[in-house]
Amino acid sequence: MPLNRIFCFRRVDFLLLFPFVPESNGLSVATVNVNGVRAAVKARSEENTGLLGWLGESPAEYICLQEVRATEAEARAALAPVLADGWKLALAPAAQKGRSGVAILSRREPDAVRIGFGDPQFADSGRYIEADFGTFTLASLYLPSGEAETERQVEKDQFLKTFGEYLKPLARKRRDVLICGDWNIAHTELDIKNWKGNLKASGFLPHERAWLSEVFGEGSDWTDVQRSFHPGEAGPYSWWSFRGQAFDNDSGWRIDYHVANKQLAKRAARVVTQRAERYDLRWSDHAPVIVEYTA
User: Fold this and answer.
1) Domains annotated on the chain, with CATH
2) Considering the chain, what percentage of its residues have pLDDT values greater than 90?
3) CA distance 155 to 224
4) Which is more confidently placed, 13 or 89?
5) 213-232, pLDDT tens digit by residue?
6) How do residues 90-111 score in pLDDT, each as one tens digit?
7) How distant is the alpha carbon of residue 118 from its chain centre?
8) Is 176 annotated as a binding-site member?
9) CA separation for the pair 267, 263 (Å, rounded)
10) In which order are the strands placed within the sheet that holds 128-133?
11) How far is the C-alpha of 140 from the C-alpha of 104, rounded, in Å?
């Protein structure tokens, strides 16, 4: 669904409807896990309402993509129409073919691009890319999903440890810093519909949630931008399983975050979680999350 149409905020007591139109001189940033860029491009391509249609009408200046699952050549081929239209692509593919991969699409060339965050275990994992645009630093993150009581959870916990250390000095840089992406952790009971049934599931484990509290909880140097707009409210969720009736019942998770340092977070003006109107209109199992920041 194009961004210049009508969007819905799912709130506790009502639906707030408004067109998302960025103000001049602002900073508009979107993030979405595409669940495979080639699949997202192919989905609903006949109606031009898949990923390419969305990108073609997006007012965002910067878009963070996760789970690209493509090589540089494959991603550029899939995104060729929007790249021809002027979008610039910075990509960190995973060494393991068909897995992970993060990217940043931007309307301007980045001044610098960095891949990884200093942990050699994840250097080629396709999970973190960071780019500078003037005094603005933007990162796209795809945090491991994990699986409780398995080696996958051990890997995720190692990522949390070293990435958490990396975040501390990053927040204090004298520039605007924003980390967007699929953090694969629902922070509180407000961020997951079926929280009681997921107390022992990766993504809602106590130590994972505590880690997020350290990252952007009270007194930290980072802000969970969406939550600052929806204090005390359930959702709005950004991921729903393709299985069963999860989407129709809005049984989702809020795991796609804009995490901004304090000087940028205070300029957040509007937030939209772009939930599709119907199940059959989805081109990913995640919804884009868009935030407008004033100049």
Assistant:
1) 27-293 (3.60.10.10)
2) 86
3) 24
4) 89
5) 999 998 999 999 999 999 99
6) 999 999 999 999 999 999 999 9
7) 21
8) no
9) 7
10) 112-115, 128-133, 136-142, 176-182, 256-261, 222-224
11) 7
Q: In the prediction, which pLDDT does 21 show?
A: 45
To the nearest whole number, what is the mean pLDDT of the chain? 91
DSSP secondary structure code for residue 253 in this structure: B
Q: Quote the CA–CA distance of 66 and 139 in Å, as a whole number.
A: 11
Give the strand order in the sheet containing 289-293.
88-92, 102-106, 62-66, 27-33, 289-293, 268-273
Give the burial class of 8: count Cβ atoms within 10 A of its Cβ; 0-12 exposed, 13-18 middle, 19 or more buried.
middle
The residues facing 240 across adjacent strands are none
> Which residues in the chain belong to E strands, given as ranges?
6-10, 15-19, 27-33, 62-66, 88-92, 102-106, 112-115, 128-133, 136-142, 176-182, 222-224, 256-261, 268-273, 289-293
* 191 labeled binding residue: no
Q: Count Cβ atoms within 10 A of the Cβ of residue 152 and give its class: 0-12 exposed, 13-18 middle, 19 or more buried.
A: middle
Q: Which token pair is 58?
A: 């997006």
285 annotated binding-site participant = yes
Which residue shows structure tokens 């989805």?
282
Q: Any idea which residues carry the catalytic annotation?
A: 142, 182, 286
Retrieve residue 112's tokens.
């610098």
Tokens of 181: 């992406």
Rounded Cα distance between 168 and 153, Å, is 23
Rg (CA), the chain: 18
Cα–Cα distance between 251 and 239 in angstroms, integer?
9
Helices (H), the chain: 37-42, 51-57, 72-78, 80-84, 151-170, 206-216, 225-229, 262-265
Instruction: Determine whether the annotation assigns residue 184 to a binding site.
Output: yes
Residue 78, pLDDT score: 97
CB 233 within 8 A of CB 214: no
